[in-house]
């Protein structure tokens, strides 16, 4: 009975991984024209905007993360020695990907807060503190899964520390969304419309 449960769990994980790869590939192909237009809107390849740099990082680091994780899972060519040198690659890229996505959310929050210097400093402190927590909880207690046909890692501690990684990530998102929402609620859309109508009338 227990063996059947393990087999069913492994099969489900494989199906989920294949489904996620398919969705990611479809999304990549679908957004290629928009990506090209975004690149063309830049003044020069040597003068990319911050938004463009962050876009490139999150897009292609995410692709590398998916490839590295699934190569370790589906490949059958790993020796025990090779896997010892590889199994931490997927968690490391996952942490890097999370850092980039949180940097994007932080920049967005800073702009919504009208680039207030005090808020910017607070956002940086929150970012570096929670990123440090994420790196520690994601890497510190990782161990190679013993006697496994795949090259993957698992939490080796008595307490599952990996859930602290996701807790820190969710906490960061909640803080950023809360700050953004509080500042957006201060905006008066009616006054903005009136201002735009005045500008439009004066320009005629």
Structure, briefly:
With 204 residues, the protein is mainly alpha-helical. It contains 7 helices and 2 strands; from the N terminus they run αααααββαα.
Structural overview:
Mean pLDDT is 85; it is low at 1-7 and 198-203. It is built from 7 helices and 2 strands; from the N terminus they run αααααββαα. Helix 4 (89-112) packs antiparallel against helix 5 (117-139) and helix 4 runs parallel beside helix 6. The protein has 204 residues and is mainly alpha-helical. A hairpin with an 8-residue loop joins strand 1 (142-144) and strand 2. It has helices at residues 2-40, 50-74, 80-86, 89-112, 117-139, 162-184, 189-203, and strands at residues 142-144, 153-155. The longest helix is centred in the N-terminal third of the chain and has 39 residues, at 2-40.
Write the layout of secondary structure elements.
Blueprint: H1 2-40, H2 50-74, H3 80-86, H4 89-112, H5 117-139, E1 142-144, E2 153-155, H6 162-184, H7 189-203
Antiparallel strand pairs: 1-2
Q: Total strand count, please?
A: 2
The gross shape turns out to be globular
**Percent of sequence in beta strands:** under 5%
| Main structural class | mainly alpha
Q: What is the CA–CA distance across the termini?
A: 78 Å
Percent helix: over 70%
* Uncertain runs: 1-7, 198-203
Strand order of the largest sheet: 1-2
Question: Helix and strand succession?
Answer: HHHHHEEHH
Kindly provide the radius of gyration, computed on alpha-carbon positions and rounded to a whole number of angstroms.
22 Å
Question: Number of helix segments?
Answer: 7
Largest sheet: 2 strands, antiparallel
Average pLDDT for all residues? 85
């Amino acid at each position: 009975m227990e063996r059947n449960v393990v087999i069913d769990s492994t099969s489900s994980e494989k199906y989920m991984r294949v489904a996620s790869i398919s969705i990611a590939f479809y999304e990549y192909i679908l957004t290629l024209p928009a990506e090209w237009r975004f690149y063309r809107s830049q003044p020069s390849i040597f003068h990319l905007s911050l938004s463009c740099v962050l876009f490139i990082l999150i897009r292609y680091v995410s692709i590398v993360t998916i490839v590295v994780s699934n190569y370790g899972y589906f490949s059958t060519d790993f020796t025990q020695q090779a896997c010892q040198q590889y199994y931490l690659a997927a968690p490391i890229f996952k942490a890097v990907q999370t850092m980039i996505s949180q940097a994007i959310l932080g920049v967005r929050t800073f702009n919504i807060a009208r680039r207030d210097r005090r808020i910017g400093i607070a956002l940086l402190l929150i970012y570096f503190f929670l990123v440090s927590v994420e790196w520690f909880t994601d890497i510190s207690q990782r161990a190679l899964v013993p006697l496994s046909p795949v090259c993957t890692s698992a939490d080796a501690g008595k307490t599952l520390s990996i859930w602290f990684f996701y807790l820190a990530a969710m906490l960061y998102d909640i803080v950023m969304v809360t700050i953004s929402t509080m500042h957006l609620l201060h905006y008066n859309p009616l006054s903005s419309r009136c201002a735009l109508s005045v500008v439009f009338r004066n320009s005629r």
